[in-house]
Specification:
- This protein has 97 residues and is an alpha+beta fold.
- 38% of the residues lie in helices and 16% in strands.
- The strands form two sheets. The protein has a three-stranded antiparallel sheet, with no helix packed on it.
């Protein structure tokens, strides 16, 4: 048996299982000449290129949604626990004509 390659592509998705160096980790997340997605420095798939402005928009939207979700959990908007605790069984009558 031969050695298995530690980097390459499977069905168009890149993978890299070489031990990453600090320089390779830092340079993989900041590539000004590339698009929004770049190959991950370790593992399978793609990651955000922080040198591209679109990546910052994605991070801002994700952070805003996370902040909004955390805020709604603490204020109790939506269905609160007190409403669901006070509700008893519900009888549903179906009329078969």
């Amino acid at each position: 048996m031969g050695d298995k390659p530690s980097s390459g592509e499977i069905l168009g998705i890149p993978y890299n299982f070489d031990r990453p160096s600090l320089g390779r980790l830092l340079s993989s997340y900041w590539q000004p000449d590339k698009g929004m997605l770049v190959e991950k420095p370790f593992g399978i798939g793609y990651t955000l290129n922080l040198a591209n402005w679109r990546s910052w928009v994605v991070l801002a939207v994700a952070g805003g949604l996370y902040w909004q979700q955390k805020g709604s959990e603490t204020t109790g908007t939506g269905s609160s626990e007190s409403e669901s605790e006070g509700a008893g069984p519900v009888e549903v009558i179906v009329d078969d004509d």
